[in-house]
Design goal:
alpha/beta; Quinone Oxidoreductase, Chain A, domain 1; Rossmann fold; seven-stranded mixed sheet; six-stranded parallel sheet; 15 strands; binds NADP nicotinamide-adenine-dinucleotide phosphate; Zinc_ADH-like; Zinc-binding dehydrogenase; ER
Length: 357
């Protein structure tokens, strides 16, 4: 085992200000395991945390002056086991869960206090102690880099498609799934939806990315830059019916359009806010109650998913041999560059930092 624990830290004061440091390797306590971290995937949230902008959950609004190890998603190997742990052994390959205390069912406010990479220390380091119940087995067929992409992006996508169905009854066949953009959550959504037998529609600002989405199996693609009325294009593609399930990633500038291209009885998953967290003055959401009732739409807020749904999803991934789309892998020393690359939005799918050499 190495002598020290290399780690990146942020004071939540800017992408330029992340620093590399080191600490002693922690020891697992009762019911805990020590994990040697191999690969970390980045999420949009991590860039927000680093910039001090992750402020829409009151229980995780971190102290900006405190040093924090950022990031939540990792694949690693168990390096030591604390007392009273029977579920794991040294060498097991495992994945973090975003909110380790959220084991099943509806997430509650108290769960948020266990969020990785804010408010709790994250995974952009060599070693971290985890509760034995806060990790899941990594699918054997995936590389460390691929497997590290599952905790936030894939689980959120899984919940967007299946969260309203009971555990063990995943679906999607015969449904039309619309994903906005080609980032981590949306490309995971495309892969899961395709494997489920759904018809898929992908929007993007880039024709090049849409070409890649087609290669991944997207049935229909729309460039939302050159076609700002993309919701009408969705209605044409679906012959006037609209999409059954929408990944609402944009927020302020896209939500109204999602209401306009969802089907009767459809589901809009409120996932992200990449176009802003405050209402767009031209967005016309004043009658959101009418927007919901006129087509009996469900607008469902999503915060990732519980551990049992993560395990259900891993079985589905293994059954369908889905490989998460890793766009680029950075070295541990290049983590600062990796955050900036993700924030630039030039990626397709996921961005990963390799931690172990
Ligand atoms: N609620 C949850 O549990 C949860 C979980 C994960 C993520 N999120 C949120 O979901 C969002 C996406 O996260 P991520 O990690 O997938 O981000 P990401 O990998 O950085 O991807 C963001 C993507 O958004 C797309 N985009 C930007 N403007 C858009 C617009 N006007 N219309 C449609 N798409 C647009 C871009 O796609 P193109 O480059 O193709 O245009 C970009 O690649 C973030 O707001 C994040 O905080 C929430």
């Amino acid at each position: 085992m190495a002598e020290t624990n290399r780690q990146w830290q942020t004071r939540q004061d800017g992408l330029d200000k992340v620093t590399k440091t080191s600490s002693a390797i922690p020891k697992p306590g009762d019911g805990e395991v020590l994990v040697r971290i191999k690969a970390v995937s980045l999420n949009y949230r991590d860039t927000e945390v680093v910039m001090g902008l992750y402020n829409h959950h009151k229980t995780v609004d971190g102290e900006s002056s405190n040093d924090l190890v950022p990031c939540s998603d990792m694949c690693g190997e168990i390096a030591a086991i604390g007392p009273n742990v029977t579920a794991w052994k040294n060498g097991d390959r495992v994945l973090s869960t975003f909110i380790p205390s959220h084991q099943t069912g509806q997430i509650k406010e108290h769960h948020m206090a266990s969020g990785m990479g804010l408010p709790l220390e994250g995974v952009l380091q060599d070693y971290r102690v985890f509760p034995a119940t806060g990790i899941v087995k990594a699918p054997d067929y995936l590389s460390d880099e691929e497997a590290s992409c599952l905790p936030i992006a894939a689980v959120t996508a899984w919940m967007a498609i299946n969260g309203m169905r009971p555990l063990g009854q995943s679906g999607g066949k015969g449904e039309t799934v619309l994903v906005q953009g080609t980032g981590g959550v949306s490309i995971s959504g495309l892969q899961i939806a395709k494997a489920s037998g759904a018809t898929t529609i992908v929007t993007s600002s880039s024709d090049e990315k849409l070409k890649r989405a087609k290669e991944l199996g997207a049935d229909h693609v729309i460039n939302y830059r050159t076609n700002p009325d993309w919701e009408q294009a969705v209605m044409e593609i679906t012959k006037g019916n609209g999409a059954d399930i929408i990944f609402e990633v944009g927020g302020a500038k896209t939500l109204r359009k999602s209401f306009d291209c969802v089907t009767f009885g459809g589901l809009i998953n409120s996932i992200g806010y990449v176009t802003g967290k405050t209402d767009d003055p031209e967005g016309d959401l004043t009658n959101i109650n009418v927007l919901a009732l006129r087509k009996t739409v469900t607008l469902k807020g999503i915060i990732n998913g519980p551990r049992d749904r993560f395990e259900e999803m891993c079985d589905f991934y293994a059954q369908h041999r889905i490989n998460p789309l890793v766009d680029r892998v950075f070295g541990f020393d290049e983590a600062a560059k990796a955050f900036k690359f993700l924030y630039s939005g030039s990626h397709f799918g996921k961005v990963v930092v390799r931690v172990a050499p």
